[in-house]
Amino acid sequence: MAHDWLDRWREGRIGFHRDRPHPALVRHWPRLGIRPGTKVLVPLCGKSLDMRWLGQHDHPVLGIELAPEAIEQFVGEGTSEISRYRQDGFDICRQANVELWCGDFFHFHIQQAAEIGAFYDRAALIALPAPTRQRYAFHLAQLLPPGAAGLLISLTRTLDDGGPPYTVSSDEVRELFEPNFHVTHLEDGEPEAGSGFQESVWAMVRRGPID
Ligand SMILES: C[S@@+](CC[C@H](N)C(=O)[O-])C[C@H]1O[C@@H](n2cnc3c(N)ncnc32)[C@H](O)[C@@H]1O
């Protein structure tokens, strides 16, 4: 799995990357009630410009990404100063208020997540095969404090020739996340001509012990 992603980045096969912030992020994030200054976890972040958008909207960002190429390209395309350090087995690259941790999301643990208060998942859940999605939803929940909110963009496809991206139905999103999150369906996008890809947007809030 990991080597497939590393190969993709080395070979530039990154059709999932968007050259502008995702419209669902721009539309819905301001309505989630997440306070400016809240640190946002972005698992499987690639070199997404959504992180730049979050950073510009007063959110410190912590992205986690396997591929060093993605991180180098992200900071290379930015203009601010870059600093680098190593912590807990991750090489970290910081630019403005975005810090990118290079490594496996499943090796990132609660001790490292101390200041995180929100999350953003676009094309992270749907990049993972079914058994790993279960693990992902659980791991994400472990990293977030009660009350932490986030936005998740899932995807289904009519022509299912395997993945990634994988089809993740609305039922599956609910099954995976409802045990640990309050889950609200916000919208379904238009199916994309040709691929039949259709995105769904979800707001989530980490449950506490009694809700
Ligand atoms: C479909 S891409 C989405 C990237 C980004 N979220 C976006 O919207 O452009 C999935 C990314 O997850 C990374 N990835 C896959 N498995 C990972 C893991 N276990 N830990 C960290 N990153 C991972 C891949 O290298 C790839 O960049």
Notes on the structure:
Helices cover 27% and strands 28% of the residues. By secondary structure, the protein is an alpha/beta fold. It has helices at 2-11, 23-28, 49-56, 68-77, 130-143, 170-177, and strands spanning 39-43, 61-65, 82-87, 90-95, 98-102, 116-122, 149-156, 181-188, 198-206. Strands 3-4-5-2-1-6-7-9-8 form a nine-stranded mixed beta sheet, with helices on both faces. The termini are far apart. It has six helices and nine strands, in the order ααβαβαββββαβαββ. It has a single domain (2-206), classed as 3-Layer(aba) Sandwich (Rossmann fold). The protein binds S-adenosylmethionine (SAM). Residues 5, 16-17, 44-46, 48, 64-67, 70, 104-106, 122-124, 127, 164 line the site of S-adenosylmethionine. Keywords: Cytoplasm, Methyltransferase, S-adenosyl-L-methionine, Transferase. InterPro entries: SAM-dependent_MTases_sf, Thiopurine_S-MeTrfase, TPMT. One of its GO terms (molecular function) is thiopurine S-methyltransferase activity.
Quick overview:
The chain has 211 residues and is of the alpha/beta class. Helix content is 27%, strand content 28%. It has one domain: Rossmann fold (3-Layer(aba) Sandwich).
